[in-house]
Amino acid sequence: MIQHRANMDWMLKDLAESVPQTRNVVVLSSDGLRMAQYGTDTDTADRLAAACAGLQSLAGAVSSEFPHSDGKMRMVVIELDGGFFYLMAAGAGAYLAVLADEGVDAGLIGMKMRDLVARIGEHLSSPPRGEGSAA
């Protein structure tokens, strides 16, 4: 299991507080394990992380329809009643997920997510687990 990285929470807090109407920020591994969170409880963060793993897999499947795609998901945006969901690749085997209210500035949240990933992407990675690793 991936250890929760409490020292990353302040970086997520900075993202959440710099964009009005941001609700939750979660960093997850590609297999859906929560690595860090801000603005939500652990159970909600775990559910979001698990759902995001499926979503990034679906995005990869859709990418096969583009002839020059490398098959890697960069960003998924879903507009829902009440808000938006953003999922962005954030390092080797890691993703950054954000839930935001309806009135969020979509351009600002995208820019802040990209800035965060560019600044600290190497800290937001989840190396593959080797054979025989404890689960």
TrEMBL record:
| Roadblock/LAMTOR2 domain mapped to chain residues | 9-100
Q: Which residues form a coiled coil?
A: none
Under the heading Pfam families, the entry gives:
Robl_LC7
Q: Which InterPro entries match?
A: Mycobact_SerProt_Inhib_Rv3364c, Roadblock/LAMTOR2_dom
Protein name listed in UniProt = Roadblock/LC7 domain-containing protein
Q: Which organism is it from?
A: Streptomyces ochraceiscleroticus
